[in-house]
């Protein structure tokens, strides 16, 4: 988050248990605290457009990095 200019922000992923169906089972929520003193909340509810853009850029960048194989 620091590299995105969000030095004080906290980011967490929350994974929920679910019953798998034909398409599998993915129940994940991105949680963020953008300002000290605020409660950590779902990203989709509290992030501004700029914050959403920076988080998406970070996710896309992380996914594009090749994984070293031993």
What does this structure look like?
The two termini are 28 Å apart. The chain is globular and about 40 Å long. It has one domain (2-18, 26-64). The chain has two helices and three strands, in the order E-E-E-H-H. It has helices at 43-46, 49-64; strands spanning 10-15, 28-33, 41-42. The longest helix has 16 residues, at 49-64. The chain is of the alpha+beta class. The model has no long low-confidence stretch (mean pLDDT 80). A three-stranded antiparallel β-sheet has the order 1-2-3.
Characteristic key phrases:
three-stranded antiparallel β-sheet
Net shape: globular
Total number of β-strand segments?
A: 3
How many domain regions?
A: 1
Order of helices and strands: EEEHH
Side-by-side strand order of the widest sheet: 1-2-3
Low-confidence stretches: none
Summarize the model shown.
The chain contains 2 helices and 3 strands, in the order E-E-E-H-H. It is an alpha+beta fold. A 3-stranded antiparallel sheet has the order 1-2-3.
Detail the topology: elements first, then pairings.
Elements: E1 10-15, E2 28-33, E3 41-42, H1 43-46, H2 49-64
């Amino acid at each position: 988050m620091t590299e995105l200019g969000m030095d004080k922000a906290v980011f967490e992923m929350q994974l929920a248990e679910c019953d798998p169906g034909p398409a599998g089972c993915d129940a994940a929520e991105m949680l963020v605290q953008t300002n000290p003193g605020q409660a950590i909340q779902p990203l989709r509810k509290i992030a501004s457009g700029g914050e959403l853009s920076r988080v998406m850029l970070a996710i896309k960048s992380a996914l594009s990095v090749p994984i070293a194989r031993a």
